[in-house]
Amino acid sequence: MKLEDFPEHIQPYLIPRVSAEVVYRCLGCNAQYGIDELLYTCPSCGSVLLLEDLTFDRLTQIAPELWHQILDYRRMLNLPALRGIYRYHEFIGPVIPLNAVVYLGEGHTPMVEANRHLQELTGVRFCFKNDGQNPSASFKDRGMASALSYINFLVQSAKLPEVLAVCASTGDTSASAALYAAYLQPQVKSAVLLPHGKVTPQQLSQPLGSGARVFEIPGVFDDSMKVVEALSERFAVALLNSKNAWRIWGQESYAYEIVQDFDYDMNHKVVVVPIGNAGNITAVLSGFLKFFNAGLIKCLPKIVGVQSTHANPVYRYYLEPDRKKRNFEPVTVRPSVAQAAMIGNPVSMPRVVELVEAYNDKAGRQSVFFAEVEEQDIMDWQLTANRNGHIACTQGGESLAGMVAAKKRGIISDDDLVILDATAHALKFAGFQDMYFEDRFAPEFEIVPRESLKNFPRLVRAQGVRAFPSPEKPLTGQAFDDFVQKTAEAIAEALNLKPLSRNG
Ligand SMILES: *Cc1c(COP(=O)(O)O)cnc(C)c1O
Ligand SMILES: [Zn+2]
To answer: Which ligand is nearest to the CA of 283?
Structure first.
C-alpha cells in the first residue's frame, strides 16, 4: 500500500525517524561509551556490553493502542528497509538511517501449530516458530542484519574505511556473517573461524559459497572463540560474534514478532529457546522486557531456556535457588547433536544474569526457567516433530524436549500456549539424522536409535526385469515397457496396494 493511502493519523508514524541517543553500557562497571566506534568489551573492566537507548522514554509517549496500529499497518508497507527486522526500528535501530539497512529477507518467520497427534502426545498446545526459514537458514540472520546494517552505516558515514568482519562459530554464525558481508562487497570482507570437524558439511559449505576466508581451528568452539577474541583485541577487525551487542538488538525481533502474531496478548504464553552462547535468550528476554516497559504488552510470557546434559553451564548455574549463592562455572562440553549450542562458557552469561533478574522482578514472580534434556530426547523429539510436518533442526528438537521436561515439572500449565524456537533448518543437521537411522552414533553421544523412528531408502530392482535403464543406455520399446511394469508391480507389492477395480 502507498503511504498516502494509509489512515491519516498513522502516516506520520509509518516511516521511523532517526532520533535517539544510544550508548554501549558495561554490565560489569556500568560505564557508558559512545557508539561511533566498534566496541565489544568494556575498555576499563573487560566485561560484556549491551546497547542502551538513553531516550527510551520517548517510546512511552505513544499510546499502546497507537503502537499496535503503527506496527500492524507497517506490515502493509512496501518499503524494503522496513520489511525485515526494522519493522521494529524504534526499538532495535533508532540510530540507523533506512538507507543503510541491509535487508536480505530475514525475519517474519512462520509460526506453525503442531498437529493434533503431537499435541496429544505431549499434552501441550504448541507451535514452532521456524527460524530456519531465514536466508541462511538460521535465526542468526536477525542479528547479522542488525550488525551489518550498523557497519554499513559507519562505512557510509566514512567513520570506517573498509571492514574485515570476523567471527568464531558453531556453524550458523559464520554462514550468516559470510552471507551478509558478501552483500556489502567490496567495502566489507569476512573471515570465519570454525572448530575443525565440529560443524556440519552444509554449514561449512555456506561461508565457502559466500566467498569468505574460512579457517578451521583445532579444539571445540570455546577454543575458536578465544582465538577470535585475541584477534579482535589486537587487530583492526569487526567482531560479529554475539559479544557484538548489535547482534542482540537484531535478535530481539524474534520476541516482537511473537507479540505481534498474537495481537499483543502474551497472557498464558510460554516461549522455549535452546541456549548455547546465550545471545538468543538474552535477546528474547530483552525484547519482551522492552515491549513491556513501553506498554505494548500488559504481561510477560514465561521463558524456558533449554540445554543438553552435554553442555549445560547455564542450567547448572540456576540449580541454586538463592541468587546470592549462585556461582558460574564453565563446563567442558561433550559431543552433542545440538551442536550449534554445544558451548561450555557462554559469552553472554553476564547479560543473562542481569536480564533474568530484571525479568522476574517486572513479572512479579518467577517467569524464567531452565530445563535440561538428554541427547536421546533431543533426537527422538526432533525426528518425531519432523514426522509430523515440521522442519526442526536438532536445536528445535532440544526446544521440544525441553517443553516436555518443563511440562513434567509443572512449569507449563494446561491453559498455556507454547512457542518453540526452531532455530535452524533441519537440512543443516541432516548428518545427525543419518547417524540415527544408520545407528552410527559414537558411544559418547549416548543415543540408541528407536526402530520406529528409523527410515531408509530402498533400491528397487524388480525380479525378472530383462534390462535396467542407465544414463548411458536408455531403454526403448518392449524392454522399457517391461522395466516400467515390473518395477511398478514391485512397488505396489511393497506398499501393499490394492488394484483399481475396472467394473465401470
Ligand atoms: C547459535 C545457535 C544456537 C544457540 O544460540 P545462542 O545465541 O548461542 O545461545 C541454537 N541453535 C542454532 C541453530 C544456532 O545456530
Ligand atoms: Zn566495565
So the answer is: 1
pLDDT of residue 504: 53
322 & 463 share domain: no
Structural domain count of the chain: 3
Instruction: Select from 218, 247, 276 the last residue of a domain.
Output: 247
Question: Same domain for 483 and 504?
Answer: yes
Our answer on whether the CB atom of 424 is closer than 6 Å to any ligand 1 atom is yes
DSSP 311: S
The residue-averaged pLDDT of 79-96 equals 97
Ligand in nearest proximity to the CA of 313: 1
Q: Please indicate, yes or no, whether residues 278 and 382 belong to a single structural domain of this protein.
A: yes
Cβ atoms of 442 and 370 within 8 Å: the answer is no
Residue ranges of the alpha helices (H) in 23-102? 64-74, 89-92
Q: What is the pTM of this model?
A: 0.96
Question: From ligand 2's centre to the CA of 319, what distance in Å?
Answer: 27
d(CA 349, CA 478) in angstroms, rounded, equals 70
CA distances from 347 to 168, 229, 296 (A): 12, 11, 30
* DSSP-derived pairing of the beta strands 49-53 and 22-26: antiparallel
Residue type, 176: S
Q: Using pLDDT thresholds of 50, 70 and 90, give the confidence band for residue 503.
A: low
Nearest CA to 395 out of 411, 415, 379 is that of 379
